[in-house]
Specification:
alpha+beta, disordered N terminus, about 15% helix
Amino acid sequence: MLIAVFAVTALLPLTACGGGENPAIGGVGGDSVAGGAGTGDGGPNEGTLDNPTKNGGVSGNAPKDGTAFQKLPKAGTMAAAARFVNGFTRCDPISTTRENGGPSEGPGSAEFGTSHSVTEVGYCGRRNVTTIVMIKDPKVFQAAFKADVDAKKGSGNPNSGIVIGQDFAMGSESSDAMSSLLTPQAGLLMLNCHPEFNPPSGYRKEPALVKGCVLTDYYKD
């Protein structure tokens, strides 16, 4: 969903509910990280809010006075992204393959990687799989995501989307996992490109990098 684990409408079958757990920040071993990531020298909690690291660690380069997107956490590596996610919902260990088989479409497919500027994909969890992707060009990613939503011609859940940072995105088959990353403590936002999205008052609705999409902290499965 990220389209099959990832998205709104037909993208992510992210609509299944499951109980999210919230272990202490950190805890994803570098040896099990997708693509050999996790070789940085930042220590066991590299890429977390406790230890953002000097080289692309989570929130390491986020300006205090930037746009909503510029203030999002930035990971730099799959290891850092996985450790960050694991700080708010269980994602340990991260792997390059789904234990119950890969999706027929979405982040595990070559098409998704090419058209969405995805450079790396990692999976964690068994019953409720969480998918993390690393993004090379966030504007290309957001434009491709919007095209996926537009192709559904207004169908699908208008209150769902993809949870994003500056250079990574996360989708899960657990709605609890999704919600846990949208708390103020986590600091991620959801990319929502549904034309009928209209959150209740008091929730954020910030401009995204592409017209027709917003960044929000509102999500309803």
